[in-house]
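dude i think i finally got it to work??
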Amino acid sequence: DWEQRKLSEVLISLQNNTLSRVNLMSETGVAKNVHYGDVLIKFGDILDVSKEKLPMISDESILKKYKASFLQNGDVIVADTAEDSSVGKCSEIIGLNDEIVLSGLHTIPYRPVEKFASGYLGYYLNSSAYHNQLIPLMQGIKVMSISKSAMQNTYIIYPKLEEEQAKIGQYFSQLDNLITLHQRL
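look at this
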């Protein structure tokens, strides 16, 4: 049994920070930062923050300002700007323990209203079934972008049973691992 609902009914947006790459440190800081460029190029559908090296925020005053938007496992970060139609590419957060992670410049961080199985949203929101809804909503000439308000009326389709969502997430995760293995050969 599947459910089809508007994004605005399934995900709530959190606040992103406006720090450019220049304002981030590479080694130490008070919080990790997910940069839109890394979502577009470096990270896949799933971002395991325990395994990836993320740029750091050193300014402690930022933490107070964005406290309500500290990311959690299951949150999804959408890149809202790109030089092509990869706008809307996203990464689902996993592997988060007790570190603070924030969503950076040119991103839209979303939190599911209800619990989804790990991996499902990351894979679904990057699928052509979902992404094709974004293409007519993109704006720009040299740089493309998409707004939160434009995304609100897109549809998310998902199995009602969390076990089915988990099976789909695991299937695509295994497929990713298989592709990675073959690329190394």
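The mean pLDDT is 95.
im so relieved honestly
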